[in-house]
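Protein modeling request. Please complete all fields; requests missing the sequence field cannot be processed.
Requester role: graduate student
Desired output: 3D structure, token encoding
Chains: 1
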Amino acid sequence: MNVLRWIDDQLEETFMVIFLAIITCVIMMQIFARTFYHSLTWPEEFSRYCYIWTVFFSLGYTIRKGNALRVGILMDMLPNKLRKVIEIITNVIMLVLYFILFRYSIIYTAKIKVTGQVSPAMRLPMWIMYMSTVIGFGLAVFRMIQEIYSNFKNFNKEAKTTLESTIKEAEEEVMATGTAIPNKIEVVGGDF
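Delivered output (192 residues):
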């Protein structure tokens, strides 16, 4: 059960950190190689592919964290129940979109696998690269289903405003670093 909870809480974040760390190491290796006049042929391509995987893993991460792009200030002006209904409708539309993208990513990846296409520098089968779309959109579908379930489950709970959510997230990040939090947060134009 703890393993499933860890996967639910940390899967995307862990892979994004791993890929970004690998990118950093490979780019540093290329810098050192160029210092000694021996440029490698594969690091640029490898880093690009790792970055693409990171981007597709970030789809599920942003949905899980609730950091998807939205106009929060306008939503904050609406009554709580109307705000929840709009969120559910928006999430269902996004679920349909992600599902369509997931379906087509499977079809396209299968076509690439059949062609046997390989990358120019590393000679890596390109279907491995296109699997990033399948996994990314699959995680987005899964996370969106979780979000819709959460919306229905917490429908009658009072939703926090964008500012309250931002302050809470900042406090959680500060607590994670072990830094003391001031009792009062001063904002231009007033105190909270």
